């Protein structure tokens, strides 16, 4: 008799990933409002909030 195995289920709640940081050369240096770095900072804030919430939902995940 072959043992029963549980098929792997795709993760419906993957760990958030940080947004890529823009290259310094991508900034035009004209003092845009918002600057691409300001937009990246906002995305990083959203990422940190999402990661904090994800860690609360996955407290036993190693490396999280």
Quick synopsis:
The chain is an all-alpha fold and 64 residues long.
Descriptive overview:
This protein has a domain at 31-57. The mean pLDDT is 87. By secondary structure, it is mainly alpha-helical. The protein has one helix at 36-57. It has one helix and no strands.
- What percent of residues are in strands? under 5%
- Which structural category fits the helices and strands? mainly alpha
Radius of gyration in whole Å, from Cα?
Answer: 19 Å
Helix residue percentage:
25-40%
Report the strand count.
0
Oligomer: single chain
| Cα end-to-end separation | 38 Å
Reported for the largest beta sheet, the result is: none
The arrangement of helices and strands along the chain is: H
Globally, the shape reads elongated
**How would you state the average pLDDT, rounded?**
87
Low-pLDDT parts are none
Question: What keyword list fits this structure?
Answer:
64 residues, mainly alpha, 0% strand
Secondary-structure map:
Layout: H1 36-57
